[in-house]
Amino acid sequence: MEDLDGAYAGNLGNGAIMNKRENALAAMRRQNPEHVPFVLGMTSPVYALFQEKTGAENPAEYWDFDSRSTNFRNPSQKADYSPYLPGDLPEGTVIDEWGIANVPGSMFHFTKMVHPLQDAKTVEEFNQYPLPDFRREECWQPIKAEVAAYQQRGYPVSGSLEMTIFEVSWYLRGMENLMADMMQAPDLATALLDRITALRVFQARKYAEFGVDVLALGDDISMQTGMLMSPRMWRKWFKPRLAKVIREAKSVKPELLVQYHTDGDCRAVIPELIEVGVDILNPVQPECMDPVEIKQEYGDRLSFSGTIGTQSTMPHGTPDEVRMAVKKMVETVGEGGGLFLAPTHVLEPDVPWENILAFVEACKEFGTY
Questions:
Q1: Residue 192 Cα distances to 187, 206, 273, angstroms
Q2: In this structure, are residues 22 and 31 in contact, taking their beta carbons and an 8 Å threshold?
Q3: What is the mean pLDDT of the chain?
């Protein structure tokens, strides 16, 4: 039974009632939580449907999700990226704070990227490229107040830093070019990856200084058929840089939990993600990895966020099938803690409203230990 301030009836063995922050952190540390925490994300058409159906504006508040997040603001003084981009970009193109041009595609979030460093040929060009200046106080100053406010209300807070190194690097360079650099022009790859890593270290340390509970890192390093690159290539180029970001953050706040996101089948490197300090794996995509098997193999060292398929159960299942999927995950992956339930991606427009309700209701119905 949940009361109005988000605390669940129950106790820690001494009469104290867990609030959502205490419960979620206990779950992610596999320390006997009272209920399985949950959250979901949605694309803009689904958000519009949410508004239409509920009359509310904030899904996290309306359904009382078990966590909140904060992030760096984009710099108000964005660099002039016109020298790095074509002059004939179509109407509606959005140039983000990194200088990456997003040309409108067939749907709102299916855009075509124009990579500003795709033609760079020298280390000097990589070093001179104007990365966003997240060191500006305006970019990080609001985070401290947000963290404190959410935690005072009894919620855990994650600091968003996905697309940590690999993804933002290939967005800038182009995936084929970056892969070729790693094989044929390592000085170019090193120049780009080192600059991105240094920026991410700064951001990770700031999040830790401001007291976030979870540092949310991630790069899509795998496909549904396996890794996007060989494990050997990942070990050479990305493992040590990821380890540095995590090490620097945990040097500021040793109890900080680190979540790592990658879609697809990343089983080839799960032990090494644990080795470098990852505490939570997201989203454990059931279309290509069995969450129950992953729990059985790594559940003593790793917690899991996600597990409910957005290619299968959420769009194509019945409400009862959604409910049963949630129940199964609670009883298996959630055994002994270690589960934060969520769909494995933001919900797309093909997810029926009834299935969204079924997910939320099932989390609350079946999620109590």
A1: 9, 22, 22
A2: no
A3: 94
Distances (CA, A) of 278 to 57, 161, 262: 33, 14, 12
Higher-pLDDT residue of 15, 77: 77
Q: Quote the CA–CA distance of 323 and 201 in Å, as a whole number.
A: 40
Q: CA-CA distance, 144 to 78, in Å (whole number)?
A: 23
Residue 180 CA to its chain's centroid (Å): 27
Cα–Cα distance between 345 and 357 in angstroms, integer? 16
With contact defined as beta carbons under 8 Å apart, do 307 and 332 qualify? no
User: What are the tens digits of pLDDT across the range 264-297?
Assistant: 999 999 999 999 999 999 999 999 999 999 999 9
- Using CA atoms, how far apart are residues 193 and 190, in angstroms rounded to an integer? 5
Buried b (16+ CB within 10 A) or exposed e, 255-287: ebbbbbbbbbbbbebbebbeebbbbbbbbbbbe
Distance CA 193, CA 131 (A): 12
Question: Domains in the chain, please, with CATH?
Answer: 20-74+120-366 (3.20.20.210)
Distance from C-alpha of 136 to C-alpha of 117, rounded to nearest angstrom: 23
Give SS3 for 195: helix
Q: How far apart are CA 36 and CA 20, in angstroms?
A: 10
Look at 7-21, 32-46, 89-103, 171-185 and tell me which has the smallest mean pLDDT.
Answer: 7-21
Q: What is the arithmetic mean of pLDDT over 338-347?
A: 97
This prediction has a pTM of 0.94
